[in-house]
Amino acid sequence: AGIENYPQVNRAAVKEMHRQVGDLKIDRDGIAQRGLLVRHLVLPNGLAGTKEVVNFISKQISLNTYSNIMAQYHPCYKAYEIPSLARPISTAEVQEAVELAHQAGLNRLDRARPIIVRF
């Protein structure tokens, strides 16, 4: 993100959001009413720090945090100039991200299976 302390700032913001609204509440029609939903974009070569992210969520936010593992990364513009970002993510990388979330104890993963979008 080009911000030296991005992870710390982001984590503090997520903690504060959870403090204010709590875990996501969904009504019987499946409509979100209030609460925190975390979306995590999987990047190639583990660059998103998925293991650290899901461990942070499970240990410092809540095991009931509604989480969406996003698989739509594709390289654009200057990403092609960075070898570690110059390719789409693989199915194996997405599966690993979901498994890491399960291993961390997150029990509210988005029901929709992550779909890799090819552009």
Mean pLDDT: 92
Number of helices: 3
The run of helices and strands is HEEEHEH
Number of strands: 4
| Biggest sheet character | 2 strands, antiparallel
In the predicted model, the low-confidence regions spanning at least 5 consecutive residues are none
Describe this entry's structure for a reader.
The chain is α+β, with helices and mostly antiparallel strands and 119 residues long. It has one domain. The chain is built from three helices and four strands. The chain has helices at residues 6-21, 50-61, 91-103, and strands at 25-26, 32-34, 37-41, 66-70. The model has no long low-confidence stretch (mean pLDDT 92).
Indicate the topology.
Layout: H1 6-21, E1 25-26, E2 32-34, E3 37-41, H2 50-61, E4 66-70, H3 91-103
Parallel strand pairs: 3-4
Antiparallel strand pairs: 1-2
Brief account:
With 119 residues, the chain is of the alpha+beta class. The protein is built from three helices and four strands. The strands form two sheets. It has a two-stranded antiparallel ribbon with strand order 1-2.
